Each structure stands twice: as structure tokens, then as C-alpha cells.
Amino acid sequence: MTMPSATISKDQQYLWHPYSSMIDPPPLFEVSHAEGCRLHLADGRTVIDGMSSWWCTVHGYNHPVLNTAVTEQLGKMSHVMFGGLTHAPAVALGEKLVALTPAGLDKVFLCDSGSISVEVAIKMALQFWLSQGVRGKSRLLTVRNGYHGDTFAAMSVCDPVNGMHHLFADVLQKQLFAPAPATPFGEPLSAGDCDELEQLLAGHHGEIAALIIEPIVQGAGGMRFYSADYLRRARELCSEYNVLLIADEIATGFGRTGKLFACEWAGITPDIMCLGKALTGGYMTMAATLCSERVALGISAGEAGCFMHGPTFMGNPLAAATANASIDLLLSDDWAAKVARIEAELRVGLAPLHGHRGVADVRCLGAIGVVELQQPALLTEIQPLLVERGVWLRPFGKLLYTMPPFVASSAEIAAITAAICEVVEIIS
User: Fold this and answer.
1) Which of 61, 241, 268, 366 could pair with 34 as two cysteines, CB 3.0-4.6 Å apart?
2) Contact 218, 180 (CB under 8 A)
């Protein structure tokens, strides 16, 4: 048995990793450096990162354009408080985001991470109604199989049964849950698919501040792809029942589904939109919550006279400069063609698993490929098998999936799908 490196030994002594036990931790792999789509491990092996470091490194690692943006901004200022001060990188980023997102999202609140952008969105919705003198609208409506983050308000709108946060059910605010959208992506809305959503809005709109939903792709709650017609109908119902719509585009924003933002599949504009992950190309932690002028002015006209939120690192210049460079880099290339190619190659590479004895479903959309297994698989079993085949993925539950960087080559996509097929054959 190979002894762990000094770094891994000390890591296990001092550090606590995401979703891991301190009693029986999963295996660790030390990364020495990264380049393009490759992670170079300290033991000499190299793996293709099929996860984009949890879906954010769309340009790959160590990109010269982003490196330059960081270095140049670092020479000016790495941080300055955003209370009473401003700077060019933040202003440029706000202008870009308003121009790129669906029409009507006119104001940008820069924050720290995806979960915080959801917290901000929820607080915006609640404070909006309080500012209108409406005291009853204090709950959220969402759909099952959703995931919106690990902080407390975000946890309250994650799936309460099959999600990762059921342990906290007794301490989280009780929200309202409609069934998960059932109509698959690309199909017209099935009869009755929105009925319970509408019933909840009809019966509870007086207490619902907002409907929060991941557009088109439900991510960590199950990697499910649903019909654009469902999202379009949800927008109509929110308008009809005077409920705000929050679109959580943290995972789907910046091209992941084949549209720049997943809301575009339905041609809708939410009242509030959450962005994160790929915003800075995976270089810096940063997120944004955009809202309509109606929401922004409504909050500002209320008793407080301002939005009651102010993160220390809000509008961080280093992160904002990197985000600007990342967005410009994305738009300067034919990102849509790259994503379309990746989708086509994922479909071909995963095709042998259709009908496989151990597989319940195979589905692809944009730069997302999902293999849903018949039975849950152990991370501790699957991950080393993938690493042996030169691929880095992080499966969970029954899902073995990939969300590769947009710069992944055809050969790299083929290696990812081949590794998935081989591992499924071994564990089934």
C-alpha cells in the first residue's frame, strides 16, 4: 500500500473537505499544478478534469488571458471596500451583465459566492414586499429535486426529502414545494405538469414572496433536464398571481446548456437572477444577483431606504477584473459552436450505455453529460477507477456525470466518455 504524501497526511490532520467525514474520509489526490483541461497530480499522474472544478473553469486552467487580467489588476489594487467607493472593474462588469442577461434585469448586486447570491435573491424578494407594505408574503415556493446552495435560506428551498439538507428540516423555514417538472427537455408541456404549481400559487399567493427555480437544468438535485414550456408557464403564473420569479442560473449561466443563459430557452425574464460559478472562469470567488428596476426601486422606496445587505468583499476589484476578462474571452470565441460540438461528442461517447443493465438513463444537454445508474455507487469505489483511466469526475448518488471545460478537445471528451463507459461496466 502506497503511503500518503506529507501534504495529504497534514491535510487529513487539519482540513475538512466538502461533504466528507472526519472519521472515514474519501481518498484524496494532491494536485501540483493545472494547465488547460489537465490536473497534474503530485504522484506524476495527469487527469482530464471532466468537472470544470464544480462547473466553473469553462476556459480551463492557467489561461494566459485570465492570468494577465489577475496580474494587471493586482498591480493596481486587490481589494477596496464597496461602501461609498467604486472602481472601473465593477462598473464594467455591471454594464456587461445587464447587456448580456435577459432584457429587464437592470440592476446588479455583486456578492461572494453562489449560495450567497441565492441568499441575496431571497432577501431581495422578502424586502421588496415588506417595502410595499405587504407583510404576509414571507415564504418561498419552489419545485422538488432542486438545489440552491448550502447556506440556511438556500437550504430551505432545496429538495426537503431527497436533497442534502434533510437533517436540518426542523430548523429551516418551511417553504412550499411543487412536484419537479416532469416534461423532458425538448418536448411540449405534458398535460397537468404545471397543475400543482398553479394550485399552490392560487391557494397561497398571499404568503408567497417568490418562486425560485433552476431554469431548464436541475443540477445537484438530480441533473434533470426539463421542458422550456414549463419554465415559460411558471413565468406566466408568477405574473398572474403577483409573485416574483427568481432564476438560479449559477450552474447554467454563461453557456453551459447551449444558450448563454438557460432562461433563453423559454424566452423569459425573471424578476431576479442568480449568477456564479463560471462568472470568473473559476479563477476567483464571485457571484452576482441581478434584478429588475421594479424590484430595486421598490426596495429602495421602503422603510429601510436601502437594501439591507453588504458583504465585505462585495465588488472585489480582483474578482471583477477577472470576471470581465472571462466574459470577454467567452464572447470573443464561438462558445456556442464549442458547446454544440461537446454535446454531440458526449452523445456519441455515452451512446453505448443506453439500455445497459446498470444504467437507468443517459442524457445530454449542452456541455453536460449524465449517466443515471440503477443503484447508488460509492464515490470511494468509482473515483479511483476514473483516476486510473486519466479522468477526474465527482459522482454522487446514482449520477455519474461530466461538465467539461468548453476548451476540452474532441480527444479529451472521448477519453472522458470512454472512462465512464469502462467504469460503468466494472461496477454494474
Assistant:
1) 61
2) yes
**Is 64 within any annotated ligand binding site?**
no
Residue 163's pLDDT is: 66
Q: Tell whether 37 and 94 lie within a shared domain.
A: no
Q: Which residues pair with 225 in a beta bridge?
A: 217
**363 labelled ligand-binding:** no
Contact, 399 vs 378, CB < 8 A? no
**147 in a known ligand binding site:** yes
Instruction: Supply the pLDDT for residue 4.
Output: 79
DSSP 306-364: S-S---TTTT-HHHHHHHHHHHHHHHHTTHHHHHHHHHHHHHHHHGGGTT-TTEEEEEE
44 is in an annotated binding site: no
Please check the confidence at residue 2 and state whether its pLDDT lies above 70. Answer: no
Which residue segment(s) compose the domain that 153 sits in?
77-332
**pLDDT for position 25:** 87
- Is 16 annotated as ligand-binding? no
> Residues with catalytic annotation?
19, 147, 248, 277
Answer yes or no: is pLDDT of 388 > 70.
Answer: yes
Mean pLDDT of the chain: 96
Q: Are residues 215 and 142 in the same domain?
A: yes
Long-range contacts of 341-347 (CB under 8 A, 24+ apart): 341/410, 342/366, 342/367, 342/404, 342/406, 342/408, 342/413, 343/258, 343/367, 343/368, 345/410, 345/413, 345/414, 345/417, 346/402, 346/413, 346/417
pLDDT, tens only, 195-239 = 999 999 999 999 999 999 999 999 998 999 999 999 999 999 999
Q: Does 346 lie in the same domain as 229?
A: no
The answer to whether 394 is annotated as binding is yes
Buried residues in 183-196 as b, exposed as e (16+ CB within 10 A) = bebeeebeeebbee
- Residue 110 and residue 227 share a domain: yes
Give me the number of domains the chain comprises: 2
Kindly report the CATH number assigned to the domain that includes residue 180: 3.40.640.10
pLDDT per residue as tens digits for the range 226-273? 999 999 999 999 999 999 999 999 999 999 999 999 999 999 999 999
